[in-house]
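Handout, page 2. Input:
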Amino acid sequence: MPTRDQVYTALGSVIDPELHKDIVTLGMVRNVEIHANGVIDVTVALTTAGCPIRDHFQNGVNSAIRAIDGVTGVNLTFDVLSDQEKQALRGKLGRATLPEGALAEVAHVICVGSGKGGVGKSSVTANLAAALSRAGKSVGVMDADVWGYSQPRMFGLSGGRAHANAARKIEPLVGPEGIKVVSIGFFVEEEAAVVWRGPMLHKALQQFLEDVEWGRLDYLLIDLPPGTGDVSMTLAQLLPQAKFIIVTTPQAVAQTVARRSAEMATKLELEICGVIENMSGFTNPEGVSYPIFGEGGGRLLAEDLDVPLLAQVPLTLALREQSDGGLPVVFSAPEDAAAVALTSAAKRLIAMDTAVLPMASVAAPAKPVGMSLPMA
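Output:
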């Protein structure tokens, strides 16, 4: 059987390339558990939640431990150093700061996802951002739906192009009432199809987090693509402390598919903070509602997941018109039934105090890096 001393000695060979010391000396090894079958469980606490050199630690820890006689497998999980641990580490190193990231000033990161397309996830994201902004919060929107990007149109920014500032950071475009927006649509020709494989998607999303000058934000909303593919998994790896909102429609088939997104979030250890039921009946201009997509699916999903139902958002003419018109309905018609529902959801989010941070979510590189995305 391997011993704890052997494991810690092996882990002493894994060096943090930014701090130039091994992870044992730095106090980053939080837990070691040795099972009778030779499997070793290890938890390593990183200085930032979305450390871009995470793969370095993954490979280093696996290689070091598997070299020990008797080891049959390694289960590695990551955590983040607490503020007190970071302070102690700064003292140990004699440094005033540790590597911080582009999201160091972002308090709440919320991913908005759905099990399938066509449920209005992007319009929910845009209007939720608008409602948070109207509540006095500073807000950013990251359009991670690379194939179906629609946030530029919803914020009236179609045709906009991203630029780099003097520090070689990408500047978000600014939409109505100061909402910062970044989308792949700002890097490709308008309405162009994005035909990329997994590694290119991963790199683009990593740049959206590392190389964008988000600045101080109360909320960063991330509009995920539908389903449980590469993009969602990449963001879960880069932002392990983000929260997750699931958007569904009332019908049973949408609820069933949405549950798969919930399962993905659970497997990737993302906290689900609520469900939003969209298209909860069509409300005509006279205020009469018709449940054309059925009833109750959002509530059943929320009860099944044991999370709050944040809102039931009706389908209204104003919501549809303003999604195409470039101004969220929360701004253009705040008295509209859909706007009222999404404003209520934003207030519930604020009341829930969803963040456990401020969080330095992505460690910035020591030196400015060149852009791989096409810049205007």
